[in-house]
Structure formats: C-alpha cells, structure tokens
Design a protein that fits this description.
The complex is a heterodimer of chains A (about 110) and B (about 120).
Chain A: E1 4-7, E2 10-13, E3 19-25, E4 33-38, E5 45-49, E6 53-54, E7 62-67, E8 70-75, E9 85-90, E10 97-98, E11 102-106
Chain B: E1 3-8, E2 11-12, E3 18-25, E4 33-39, E5 46-52, E6 57-59, E7 67-72, E8 77-82, E9 91-98, E10 106-107, E11 111-115
Parallel strand pairs in B: 2-11
Antiparallel strand pairs in B: 1-3, 3-8, 4-5, 4-9, 5-6, 7-8, 9-10, 9-11
Classes of the chains: A mainly beta (about 110), B mainly beta (about 120).
Chain lengths: ~110, ~120
C-alpha cells in the first residue's frame, strides 16, 4: 500500500497567518491527491482534488500544489473558521490511503 | 444537491457482523464511486473500501478478509458488512460518494459503532 506522511502533526498559528501543510507519498501518485478539512464531530469536507483543483464553494485562500510524491496545502490567510484537522488522501491506487492528519490550532 | 443518509446498528458484541447502509438522495446515483471510511475515537481516517459503477469492489488489504461492500442501484443505496468485529473495530463509520476525480466528494453524517461485550 502507498503510505502518506503529513507534516507537521500539529501546527499553531494566528488569524491572518500563511499556513502550509505538506504530504509525502511513498511512491509516485501523479496528481491523484485530495485534501480534506474535518471539524470536531463532523464528517470531513473536500477542499482540493487532483492535487490543485479547488472544490466548488471552497474559499480561494485554500490552494494545493505538487505532483509525484510531494504535495502542499496552503491557507493564504488563516481565518477563525479554518482551525480544524486536515488530511491528505491518495487515490492513485485502488487501496486508497490517508495521511495521519495535521491539527491546526490557535496560537 | 446530493445527500447521503446512513443507518445501521450502533452497538455490537464481539464476533457479530457490522451492517450499515447508505442512501443517496437529491441527485443521480449511477456512474459513481461509493466508499466507506472509518475513524476510531480520537484517531485519523481509515479507508475501508470502495465499489464503483462497474460493480467492482476494492478493499483495504488489512480488512479484506472480513469486509463486503455492495450496491443496490434500484434503491440508490450501498452497504457495508464487516464480519467478526472486535473492540478494535469501534469507530465512527462514514459513507461517501464521488467520481473518478473526486472519489470522496459527498459524505454521510457518520455512525458511531461500538463493539463491547
């Protein structure tokens, strides 16, 4: 199975900060990568698909980049609603796998 | 707008079979990918498996011997069965639906399944 490694595990930031989360795949996944946001007690929500495509309705402060094995999720100016856990997921292989998650908390 | 509503038993004893169903409303059911994901309390997301519009299922290798995902297009529903559950299977289970480009676009509300004697 393809392993997905996110970093950092926890990130402390302030409103207005630029935030970057990285995700590394154990082998090339082309651009078959999605990013999700999850808030406590809620189902995850898709933010980015195919590594860099913004899902409809998602604020433009979210962006994704990368291909092959290295990917990033960037929040250009962190807002109060963005404090949550973020997951990457690869769907190159038919055994889909998630990263372990990155918690973005208030500094 | 497509919505997913899931249901099933929330309390099981060890060795029993977990059975959950997810119903799709508000949009087309055909031509998609239907998936199940679980999340143990306080932990991350664990992909269980998927079945696509051609009826082919794919499963997490660690669960493959115990899991079955099926789809009933006539009822716009898909289902999960997980045999021989143990306490380690206690989790919130989510159904999700999407396309080849976005397999997990729409999610159900989640169902907490507790395995306890």
């Amino acid at each position: 199975d393809i392993q997905m490694t996110q970093s950092p595990s926890t990130l402390s930031a302030s409103v207005g900060d630029r935030v970057t989360i990285t995700c590394r795949a154990s082998q090339s996944i082309n651009t078959w990568l999605a990013w999700y946001q999850q808030k406590p007690g809620k189902a995850p929500k898709i933010l980015i698909y195919r590594a860099s495509s913004l899902e409809s309705g998602v604020p433009s402060r979210f962006s994704g980049s990368g291909s092959g094995t290295d990917f990033t999720l960037t929040i250009s100016s962190l807002q109060p609603d963005d404090f949550a856990v973020y997951y990457c997921q690869q769907y190159q292989s038919y055994s889909r796998t998630f990263g372990q998650g990155t918690k973005v908390e208030i500094k | 707008q497509v919505q997913l509503q899931q249901w099933g038993a929330g309390l099981l004893k060890p060795s029993e079979t977990l059975s959950l169903t997810c119903g799709v409303s508000g949009g087309s059911f055909r031509g998609y990918y239907w998936s199940w994901i679980r999340q143990p309390p306080g932990e991350g997301l664990d992909w269980i498996g998927e079945i696509n519009h051609s009826g082919l299922p794919y499963y997490n290798s660690s669960l493959k011997s115990r899991v079955t995902i099926s789809v009933d297009t006539s009822k716009s529903q898909f289902s999960l069965k997980l045999n021989s559950v143990t306490a380690a299977d206690t989790a919130v289970f989510y159904c999700a639906m999407g396309s080849r480009d976005i397999p997990l676009r729409t999610w159900g509300q989640g169902t907490l399944v507790t395995v306890s004697s």
